[in-house]
Amino acid sequence: MQAFFQFTVEGLTIGGFYALVALGYTMVYGIIRLINFAHGDVFMVGAFIGWTVLVTLAGTHLPIVLALFVALATSLFFSGALGVVIDRVAYQPLLAAPRLSILITALGVSLALENGVLLIYGPGFLTYPHLLGTAGFTIGGVQISYAQTTMFVISLALMFALYLFVHRTFIGTAMRALAVDQDAARLMGIDVERIIQITFFVGSFLAAAAGMMEGLYYTQINFYMGFLLGLRAFTAAVLGGIGNIPGAMAGGLLIGLLESYGAGYISSRWTDVFVFLVLIGVLVVKPTGLFGERVVERM
Amino acid sequence: MRLNGMRGVCGLAALAVAAVLAGGPFPAPAAEPIKVGVPGPLSGPYANAGIDIVNAAKLAADQINAKGGVLGRPLEIVAEDDACDPQTAVQAAQKMIDSGVVAVAGGYCSGAALPELSTLHRRNIPYILDASTNPRLTELGYKDVFRTIGRDDEQGPFAASFIANALHAKRAAVVNDNTTYAKGLADATVAALKKLGVDVVYNNAITPGQLDYSPVLTRIASLNPDVIYFTGYFAEGGLMVKEARELHLKPVFMGGDGNNDPTLLKTAGSAANGMFITCAPLPQFLSGAKTFVDDYTKQFGHGPGPYSAYEYDAIGVLASAIERAKATTPDAINAALAETKDYPGITGDITFNAKGDRAVAVYIVVTVKNDEFAPYMQLNAAGQWVSMQ
Amino acid sequence: MARTDPALRAATARMLIVAVAAGAVVLPLVASDYVIDVAISIVTFGILGLGLNIVVGYAGLLDLGYAAFFAIGAYSTALLETLLHFSFWETLPPSLAFAAVSGVIIGYPTLRLRSDYLAIVTLGFGEIVRIIANNLDITGGPNGIYGINPPVLFGFEISSPATIYGLAWVFLLIVLLFTRRLSASRLGRAWISIREDETAAEAIGVPTLRVKLLAYVMGALVGGFGGSLFAARFGAIDPTGFTYLQSITFLIVVVLGGMGSMPGVLLGAVIVGGLPEALRFLALWREFGFAIGLIVLMLVRPQGLWPARIARRVPLPEDDAGDLRFAGAEAKRGETLLEVKDLGRDFGGVRAVRGVSFTVHRGEILSIIGPNGAGKTTVFNCLTGVIRPSRGEILFRGQRLGHWAPHRVVALGLSRTFQGIRLFPNMTAHQNVLVGMDPHHRVSLVGEILGLPSARRDTREHLGTCRRLLQFVGLEEAAGRRAGDLPYGDQRRLEIARALGAKPELLLLDEPAAGMNPTEKTALMGLIRGIRDLGVTVVLIEHDMMLVMGVSDRVLVMDHGTLIAAGEPAAIQRNERVIDAYLGNDTEADETAGAEEAALWDS
Questions:
Q1: Secondary structure of residue C346 in the 3-state scheme
Q2: Are residues B74 and B181 in the same domain?
Q3: Which of A75, A97, B37, C224 is deepest in the core (most CB within 10 A)?
Q4: Nearest residue in B to A134, CA atom
Q5: Is B270 found in the same domain as B124?
């Protein structure tokens, strides 16, 4: 039983990262029905920008908390902007084209980001400074580190902030309107292109936050890190019901847990098989994911 | 036809120029270079390893050329991306053949090395493997395959002996990452451990590329092993060392030679202190190789990768073979390579056996002390463990 | 896009094919082994692209795990050769069988999913197959399988690049022929119809689930075929050759080239196989260059480099033997065809339809009228199986409906049109009708693919009926035009022809006159009577009272989900409740709206 709780703690830790990245997939999908394959790489770029700023500031005598804040702010802003640029350059011109063409440009952007970072930073691993200690506490034999707790709380806080943003602000309402019916939203005077851009900004912003948190927590970053995590986050978004924001959060945590239990009770090398089988099982029973998705079918 | 005509005109022009300049100080025409192919992943997730290998080859060639080259001709490195993909690998091999390489030294993924090897074998072009430790590659009966790195089935018994006889462990967990190299090493280690009477409580694989291996470690810890031997690569190794420390796990953490990379130290930080790694003597611990590390770092701005030294030696062995063969035909080079005996490489003396493997593969155990790698123990001639500290 | 002369285009195409063929034959004689190897890779991409094109291009199903079939073919060949000592040729049939079975396994759970969910599920299957190959001992784990013998033909070993190149071309030509025949078969038409509009396809009789499953199976067959070739070429396989990235690469071949377009897919293969090789000089910049190239190409040609064209050639035979009469209907005129008892349907808390009972007799024309939101279309949807009734019973030709899939209802003789037109816009008019007719087409798929004489004869007959149907609705001239380009009224009539293609006993028309001008309406009345004269019973929903009163034998009136009146047109016009329902005695009734409705009565 102790092992079970330990697995749970570990699953929630990684699940928090998945959830943050999954939100970006789900928001973009909800609005323009695109599986944004480049999203995992935005997560990676966020981690690299944060690393660059942190390493640059390490030479100065800035207090560590301030340095972290500057790095976070820079990373989130520039990654958000990157999301907007990707949308403008690679997606907007193709919104009217067959849906798969835009999927291919998304793959192209993903490849370009990975290889761009490879060209700038080299193919090796870079290491974040070890800022988080390994200290922690124990509840009934279950090890929980302060770093783990902090990461999880920040993830939850960001998700809650997003929830408020989407449900309590005018822009959030416009986003939801867009998700239901783009043409109607346009007729109601909503600047559709702008809202799409904001969506990309917010999604990329959250992915970059996850990227920097990943760097700080696991310390090792690499141009390829967005690939596997992106895949997991996408799986999470679908599991929760793609297009559904609370679904993505729940899906992320659930995938983290599944992975943890799978690795703990079955075997790490079968984890992916386990996760995908659960996903397929859920979709067979509930074709629109756990939390479903509102699809307007017109006859 | 037209090309020939052009060449004719150029030739006449050159003659004319030569005639005009005749009598003046005229530099000896540069000898045609000897081309050596270096395949490796230069794109995709393993680009890191490929670039380290190509860099080492270039460094070796530069140093050889500075000393007058081979047979009076300079060595030229022809690097081709095999992307660790079989299809691209065949094309890379063909491309190297077309560009006129006399031999090939390099490779990283076994999955790509095998198609390369078959393609090169059709032309009898020698291939010296620097990083593929899979035993099967030299078991195909080809006379044109050699390798400067030891085989999994040699390192495995060595690691098992250390676990049983030096650490006196009773229970061991062996973890691989389901790649050819790591699985081979794990299998060899487990077999040897069982022979030595050590209880293997866990023998399984992780999925590489993930971030959090805590659940696997928690699971392993619940089986109470005395030692955890991870046979995969440094990226996952570093994370596992770090995560094991965060979980306050008791077992000793130990890695195979895929872990002897500075990245592991940076990722794991102080958590790496006290861990062990089985590997061939690292260049930095070999007096002969100290300069290699310095030269490499000076030329490329970062330290060599885990296979750089083997690639450096591969080029060196090849150069010495060509020098002895006094010819650049595949058969001559193959024959000379097969006769290689006690070539003083930076990874130890190299002698190839009948299969093309190193006759004596030397391993040591390294530990991490004060956040740095330090030699720990080795086997003496009598098969006993002696300290190197 | 300028329309060129078809004859000229055909000539250009023929020249292009000859040029490509000549180049392909000459290549191994002049090129170096490197070039030949690149060419083999391109041919391999071509084979897999054509296979994936069935799934993605024709059926419109996203597949991110196509490498799984490739892997299954390769591993089957490798295992059968190394363990059971089969020859390469002997491994082919079992490899194809395994691939086909895996197509069923992968296809089955995904059938009810929408396209984007398919993406992740197929991706998951692709990964599962790779991980299983990587984890099992029999497949050699990460080492894979070594020592697969090269194919031997008449004592000659196929192992040099030039001979493998030849073998690869033979494989490609087989696949080309196979996919070409498939795309022209009724299965090919069914795939395109579900890509265009799945709900409509199901509602006119296409068994969409089976058709989708067959798309996976056919795609899997080709993928497995390519996998066997791959194993023979390398003599060794391991799981790194079958990753998710491979699946993505195959998808790029299809989408970049042009979905559903065979020359496009082959062009895509040339680019995906050749461009990275051509960019080798870029060294580390190579992948980056490829990525940028991919984005730019997609932005410049969103439809693909060589988009699929609609086949405008109309292969409709001119012979006029046989007529459209639906045999046997005449005799049973007047008997009960359809009986609806106490039908009810709720949407959430809203009771859209309740307690509706009525009977339809053979040979009559029955109209259902009522204000918007009265529940008329919901009744149609319940009858055709598009939605399930919450209560009540539907008896059609004595059979209980209600829980049947729409295509089975169609097969029983009940077909329909839609309120908002739901043609397959990117198919020609005659192809639309053919899709409607195909469930009755008895020719076997194998016959169609092999081009057997019996199949050709059946197909001729089939096409003849199609022509007569188009003639019947007056669209013979428009047979070769894209359905989406037809004028509105023509689209309505084409939809009727498509529904008639299913040889229905009962035809449901949902607002057939909507958007028509008076002349077209008059013609439509004639058409509806004509349909009845063919022996088909007609039920229509309509707002146009002139039409309703003009053609109907009986009229049903619905309001607020219930039936408020039934009777002959003249009686309905005098019915108080009907007048109330239309003019509205409610307080919210609007004067002008009432006036408009009143005007409708007079029109």
A1: strand
A2: no
A3: C224
A4: B246
A5: no
Partner-chain residue, chosen from B178, B211, B245, that has the shortest CB–CB distance to A269: B178
How far apart are alpha carbons B258 and B71 in whole angstroms? 36
The nearest alpha carbon in chain B to A231 belongs to: B210
Domain, as residue range, for A134: 2-226
**ipTM score here?**
0.91
- Does the beta-carbon distance from C286 to B42 stay under 8 Å? yes
Three-class DSSP labels, C417-463: CCCCCCCCCCCEHHHHHHHHHHHHCCCCHHHHHHCCHHHHHHHHHHH
pLDDT above 70 as % of chain B: 90
Helix (H) or strand (E) holding B205: strand B199-205
Q: How many structural domains does chain C have?
A: 3
Say what the pLDDT of residue B19 is. Answer: 41
Predicted pLDDT at C312: 65
The answer, for C157 touching chain B at a CB cutoff of 8 Å, is: no
Given this model, what pLDDT does residue B30 score? 64
Measure B41 CA to nearest chain A CA, in Å: 11
Kindly determine whether residue B98 and residue C34, on different chains, have CB atoms separated by under 8 Å: yes
Round to whole Å and give the CA distance between C251 and C56.
Answer: 8
Cα–Cα distance for residue pair C191/C57, rounded to 1 Å: 9
- Domain enclosing residue C518, as ranges: 326-413+506-603
Indicate the average pLDDT of chain A.
89
How many structural domains does chain B have? 2
- Output DSSP code: residue C557: E
Query: What was the pLDDT predicted at C285?
Result: 85
pLDDT tens, position by position, C206-226: 999 999 999 999 999 999 999
Q: Which residues of A touch B296 (CB under 8 A)?
A: none
The parts of chain C modelled with pLDDT lower than 50 are 1-2, 327, 586-603
Chain C residues in contact with B89 (beta carbon < 8 A) = none
**Å from B378 to nearest chain C CA?**
30
Domain boundary among C502, C522, C546: C502
Q: Is A279 on the interface with C (CB under 8 A)?
A: yes
B87 to C41: CB separation less than 8 angstroms, yes or no? yes
Could C235 and B118 be called an inter-chain contact, meaning their C-beta atoms sit closer than 8 Å?
Answer: yes
Q: What is the spatial distance between Cα A14 and Cα A8, in angstroms, rounded to a whole number?
A: 10
- Which residues of B are less than 8 Å from A130 in CB distance? 269-270
CA angle, residues B162, B166, B167, in degrees to nearest 5: 90
Put simply, the answer to whether B91 touches C41 (Cβ < 8 Å) is yes
Identity at C89, one-letter amino acid code: W
Report which DSSP code applies to A133.
Answer: -
Model confidence pLDDT, tens digit, residues A219-257: 999 998 998 899 999 999 999 988 888 999 999 999 999
CA atoms within 13 A on the CB side of C180: 10
Least trusted range by pLDDT, from A34-38, B5-9, B61-65, C576-580:
B5-9
Contacting residues of B for C143, CB less than 8 Å apart: 110, 134, 136, 180, 183-184
Same domain for B310 and B234? no
Asked, for residue C11, whether it belongs to a domain, the answer is no
Q: What are the E-state strand segments in A33-141?
A: 126-127, 136-139
Q: What local confidence, expressed as pLDDT, does residue C5 receive?
A: 66
Name the residue range of residue B73's domain.
34-150+286-350
Same domain, yes or no: C86 and C136: yes
**Residue % of chain C over a pLDDT of 90:** 42
Closest of A123, C290, A223, C28 to residue B88, by C-alpha: C290
Number of domains in chain A: 1
Name the residue facing B218 among A3, A125, A130 (closest C-beta): A3
The pLDDT tens digits of the residues spanning C352-400 come to 899 899 999 998 999 999 888 888 889 998 998 888 888 898 999 888 8
Q: pLDDT tens for residues B304-316?
A: 887 888 999 999 9
Do C228 and C368 reside in the same domain of the chain? Answer: no
Contacts of C284 in chain B (CB under 8 A): 42-43, 47, 51
**Minimal Cα–Cα distance from A65 to chain C, Å?**
36
Q: Of C161, C240, C286, which has the smallest distance from its Cβ to B109's Cβ? A: C240
